[in-house]
## 1
Amino acid sequence: MPRKPNVLFILSDDQRPDTIRVLGNARIHTPHLDRLVREGTAFTRAVCPNPLCVPSRAEILSGCSGFRNGVLPGYGNAIDPKLTLWPEAMRQAGYLTWHVGKWHVAGRPRTRGYGESQGLFASGTPNPPAQADFLGRPVTGYRGWVFQTDDRKLFPEQGVGLNGQISERFADAAVSFIERKPDRPFFLHVNFTAPHDPLFPLPEYLKRYPAERMPLPPNYRPEHPFDHGNRAGRDEVLWDYPRKETEVRADLAAYYAVITHMDAQIGRILDSLDRTGQAKNTLVIFASDHGLAIGSHGLRGKQNMYEHTVGVPLLMRGPGIPRGKRKQAQVYLRDLYPTTCEAAGIPIPSSVEARSFMPVLRGQVDRHHARTFGYFMDVQRMVRTDRWKLIHYPKLNRYQFFDLRKDPQEQRDLASEPDRQPVVDELKTVLRSWQKEVRDPLSTTPAGPR
């Protein structure tokens, strides 16, 4: 019997879907992600429905939406212990299960199905020292985070918070696992912190992106036209209002530099698979937990329903994955769990709500989800089809409606145009029906006019 494939799952943090060169961004340098695109399949309409780190990662691990896995209605609740998590399903099937990098759900890796961790990075240092980012601004993200063991032995001497070399540390740990060349298949989950703020670009990478030559996002605005429900949130107050073009350009340059540095570390991990003769039997998955605005629509953070944020990069390469293909099927990040199980010939646990998209990869169908839905706290809900997107702001009782085919940058709100009302009304009904189906606490919210 042939050996089951290894699984290498690499997850970045806050990476927009338009930050891979070969997929259309000629400004950024991502040679190793480009390699995955050429050697595998890219999903260009993958979705993170709940764009915040903790709930997104909980969905990935559980294969269930936030309405099913126990994390909502807030975002810091523990995953329902009755659910079989992705690494546990792999472990039960005989896989070695390894974790590297950022840990940002309740519990610890070993209580969530991982047999071993290296390069584990999590919160833990009380009263961390003040820190400033590359522009001298006070740091509010990853304060007090340190490398540590699964049983919480901390290593503050290795640095507190983020730094410019941290992606290298994660790659070092991943490579050390791969070089073991075990006699059993492995599931290796690598969580980078890049390109989440605070940004600490290394000078040799930042010089590739002169800030004065960085173009603004095509949908840049000095300010969002209304309070989308997170105007005063941590991400948004990283910049002053109105947004300054010079600051947006500087942060975009640093953001790209950090992504390019991470890409180089991903290259080291891929090279280790080649060097140890394990590449041909390893399913490689690359994605991000969600995207980021970083200037688009007048926003800085990820707590919104626009394409630059709910859209995520998703690349797959390995046994059974077509080479050089791009798929427009709508898939959720949580669908990765059952898809991997099917690809490896592992039973999909009954607790998994998500659906495998292996039929899309096999070329049997072009569509996976006719509609995808998004949600953030009690302030945003969204439904997206192959062409249309409707966003509802319940506290404002306001809607936005976009034609993504003609307006992919979501710059023209069509919600009030009379000739669009039949489609708007249809999607309002669809959204309300879905909210009742998932028992959304907001399902009783009236959906009146804009």
## 2
Amino acid sequence: MPDFTFNASALGAGGVIERGNVTYTIPSLGSVALAPTGGEGRTVVSNYFSEELSFSHAETRVFGRETSKDTFTTSSYVLIKNLRVLNKLAVGEMRAVVTSERGMTGGDDHAFEVEASYDDVRVGNRKVIPHIDVVLSQLRTYEQLGELLGGRNAARDPQGLAKRFNASSPDELARVIGQKKPVQGSLVETVEGYEPKPCAPTIFVPGLGTVRFAELMLKPGRRRLNLIRIMFGPRKNEHDRDQPFMMAEEGPQSGGPTGGSMTLGSGEGNGTPIEP
């Protein structure tokens, strides 16, 4: 008889921050992993505080079981409240859910759902609003991402979608998807809250670094959603210059981190049928 192995994990926060020759480690907080045989897991961390990071509540959950005959559901969930990072970035509440459903037969590109939400996001003293791409959030398979790049089911802005997935054009992204390679993009279409217009999901914050919202990693049989990923320090490449965050009240980069990275709110859920 074939068997099924579950794979799900969730993380509240973790990473490293570099200041010159000194490296500060943010331990993996609120992390939980699902047993390969399924079941449930839950972790809660309350009132965490350090000079670099604080939050009042981080909750993660994972779940996996056979929900109908030869159909297996795997899910991860993460919730973070009152988040602060180096007094530069604050989030009142953010939440993510990643769910997969898979049978014992069929290919690796099985059905999944991803959800992300943000409330009261502030950079410095300014409120910003990450806007979720409703069309992209309705993806159910890896292959459907390719369908958004052209044809009857094309997204409103295929060029912008390709750019969010680090491709120069829809055709380039379509070729990568056709080869079934991993892709990395964002569920957030724009970040509103500064002049002259909303920017892409990646913004540069002076004194902090490059902040990316709702980072989505996909390949057939696997998907992961990171609510926020920060690359600390100065701009890493010219692409960052396309999305500056205009903050007159912010000073220069001096005194801030010089390197490192951090993940805040991450979830993954999938599973694999195992033949004898």
## 3
Amino acid sequence: MSSDSQPPVAIPDVAYYYPAPYWSAVEGGWVKSLLLFFDRISILLPGYMRDRHHDADPSLAGPLEDLGLLEVLDPSDWVDQRVAEQLATVMTDLLVAGAFNDLPQTGYFHELSQSRMGYGADIGLATMLIEELVARDLARPTEDGVSIPLHPVVRRTILVVLGQLARARGQRSGVAVHPATNDLSAARDLITTLGLPALPSAGHLVTLDMEVVGLDLDPIPLDEVLDFRASHIAAHTAYMRSLRGALEELSAVPETDRAALLMQRQQEIIDAAHDLRRLTRRSFGKNLAAWSLGAAGATWGVVGQDPLGLAITAAGLVAGAVPAGQPTVSAYSYVFAASHQLGR
């Protein structure tokens, strides 16, 4: 190595909070826990919702933004041309494959911002997608000029797909984006989406059970959490990466070999979680409730016209190669949840 060689620049690990565009005040403990695992948190907040995250949780939103630990992404910019095209392709292919043909009837449609559907990048493409959804009674025309009422299943599917496309979008911005949620239904939606007929990942889905990995930091002042984070983020980051690695490894092996490997990896995860929990308890010395962390997703070889797989690999997120030479792609989400028990 020459004397003027520079060490590689570390790529920030960013938690992409979904499906909601911001968290509420009662979720502050979960957000503080996220800070232990990631370099910062990002939220996708439409322009017409500007500063609503401050109103929802003034104790954290403002201070985290000031410290550079919370990044507010404007979908008018974040959902760029490539994301808009990929989202439209995935959703159109799912529609053509009949993925939404047998949805239960509902009188309640939930709005999704037009900007999250790509209006800021390609209004024509986004309009075509909306018109197709309206024609199938899966959406209704806008009522406020900034959002689209969608069937709740379609809306959740779009938000789940956006979470995966955010990984590729983040790579183009020089960051590693990781979908993360405290909404257990969002994790189930990911599994459901990956198992839809138009996607080839069915049969390769893996969930790693929630392990009590940390303690609820809600009663701990933010400055104390950040002091603890400065000393111990490396250990938490290593745990987060090992969890994702185990998920990808398990989902890539034949189902007949998965049980034994799962038992081995699960025990490793349990041991590491115990160490992190003990570290947190010793540092704060308080009787805190516990928080859990799990993961869900799949790894599969791209074959044929796989809309989500092609969207991810086209952006360069290639995890490996299968023997036939097709790229191997992974979809995943971290899942945090309160355990409602005291951390042991």
